[in-house]
Write a structure and sequence with these properties.
32% of the residues lie in helices and 13% in strands. It is α/β, with parallel strands linked by helices and 207 residues long. The protein has two domains: 150 residues, Ribosomal Protein L4, Chain: A; 49 residues, no CATH class.
Length: 207
């Protein structure tokens, strides 16, 4: 079987690089990708919605009226849920939406999503050395010359400041680093660019 190759964009001469078969040639298992994306999106939910129960509302320490003889129903506090200004019955509170996913499953999902882009011809590498000085104009020209659809995800090494600054202002372009790379953006993207310096880190995260 021929080695997997990807074009390297941004250099002075046309060239390609070899991709790891274990990561970029993995099988796409859609149910695993769905499970991991769901877990990632849940992890970003704040879970801060809440309301006060009758024990949290101020006031209402004494009975509003005596137990018997008034002709009205007995009440213990005016902060009960059926009173105006009272607490909420079964009030929602702080909670976590986290869903546990095994590390092996996460890596398989990331590898499958990246492999899908390789199979569709929508993944390429970018020469970070071509962006030593930040240039949004140069980044835009590179994307237009490549000719792939957006949204685009660019994975750069943390030290490639020039590359990050060049792409981050482009419309419908998400710039991230290998340590923060998730499956959801890869699934969302129509095309993916990975810097040569970030490639080993991406392969390590997905294998």
């Amino acid at each position: 079987m021929a080695a997997l190759k990807a074009d390297v964009l941004g250099g002075t001469a046309a060239k390609s690089a070899t991709l790891g078969e274990a990561v970029f040639g993995a099988e796409l298992k859609r149910h695993i990708v769905h499970e991991v994306v769901r877990a990632e999106l849940n992890a970003h939910r704040a879970g801060t919605r809440g309301a006060k129960t009758r024990g949290m509302v101020s006031g209402g320490r004494a009975k509003p009226w005596r137990q018997k003889g008034t002709g009205r129903a007995r009440q213990g506090t005016i902060r009960a849920p059926h009173f105006t200004g009272g607490g909420v019955a079964f009030a929602p509170g702080m909670r976590s939406f986290d869903v546990k996913v095994n590390r092996k499953v996460r890596r398989a999902a990331l590898a499958g999503a990246l492999s899908n882009h390789v199979g569709n011809g929508t993944l390429a590498l970018v020469d970070g050395g071509a962006f030593e000085t930040p240039s949004t104009k140069q980044a835009k020209a590179l994307v237009e010359k490549w000719g792939k659809e957006t949204p685009l995800v660019v994975v750069a090494h943390e030290d490639e400041i020039g590359l990050i600054k060049s792409f981050r202002n482009l419309e419908r372009v998400l710039v991230t680093v290998p340590s923060e790379l998730e499956v959801a953006p890869i699934v969302w993207a129509r095309s993916v660019l990975v810097s040569e310096a970030a490639l080993p880190l991406v392969e390590g995260k997905a294998s």
